[in-house]
Every structure is written in C-alpha cells, then in structure tokens.
Design a protein that fits this description.
- By secondary structure, the protein is mainly α.
- It has 4 helices and no strands.
- Helix content is 70%, strand content 0%.
- It is elongated, with a radius of gyration of 16 Å.
Length: 71
Amino acid sequence: MAGKQGATKRYGRNKVKCAKYYHEGRLLKNKLARFIKNNIGNDWTEDQKNKAISAFKELHFAKHSAHVLAK
C-alpha cells in the first residue's frame, strides 16, 4: 500500500457508492442545504435568495461538470 493516496484507495474501494452519490446529485443537495443554512440571511427577500442560490448552483456545476463520475 505504500505510495497510494487516500483518495485513490477510497475511490477504489467504493466505486459503486461513489458513482451512485454523483448520479443522484447528493453532493449538490447536501452542499446547497449547508449553503442555505449558513449563508442566506433571514431578512433577505425572495429575489435575493433566488439569485444567491442560482449563483451557487452555477458555480457548483462549473466546478464539478468535469468530474469523471458526473458524466
């Protein structure tokens, strides 16, 4: 096992689980829930909330669209 990185070992051991996680879109759902909980103010209007959520989704999609399992 010398020379193997942690991510390589995790992916090799959990290929099916990892692929299912990405195909179900759970990463976005979980990150979006945390984003809404921690970053959106209680006094924000619906328009402000929708713009922030939309911007977050675009950023997430751009960042993760090249992921091997997302295709």
